[in-house]
Write a structure and sequence with these properties.
The protein is mainly alpha-helical and 115 residues long. Helix content is 72%, strand content 0%. The protein is built from four helices and no strands. It is elongated and about 70 Å long.
Length: 115
């Protein structure tokens, strides 16, 4: 049982990483530009660099929402099993709210990002 739970947790954390962009993994910000590239950068270059940072932050938040939402949905199933054994210990409202918050977090990760 412990191996099953450990493998489920592993796959829950690995699934969002499969959908993540490779820029998050390597940590490039703004297309790989460095701070000493040219002293005469224009306002457009600075805005472009900030947009690249915002896109990476958006992707990290998206992965975080999917991961936390998946974990909450998994634990709502665990709570439901505990509710079936002892309804006084864990109420059905707790199970429902845990599932609902997890579903909202997963749904939030698919909302389009626009600046």
């Amino acid at each position: 049982m412990k191996k099953l739970i450990a493998s489920l947790i592993f796959f829950i954390y690995m699934i969002p990483l499969a959908f993540a962009d490779s820029n998050i993994a390597v940590g490039s910000v703004g297309g790989g530009s460095n701070f000493n590239s040219s002293p005469d950068e224009s306002i457009g270059d600075v805005a472009g660099n900030l947009f690249g940072v915002l896109m990476n932050v958006r992707q990290m938040i998206q992965v975080l929402c999917i991961t936390v939402g998946s974990v909450l949905i998994f634990f709502s199933g665990v709570q439901y099993r505990r509710h079936c054994k002892n309804p006084v210990q864990i109420t059905m409202g707790t199970v429902f709210m845990t599932f609902l918050i997890g579903a909202v977090l997963i749904g939030m990760s698919f909302v389009p990002f626009q600046i």
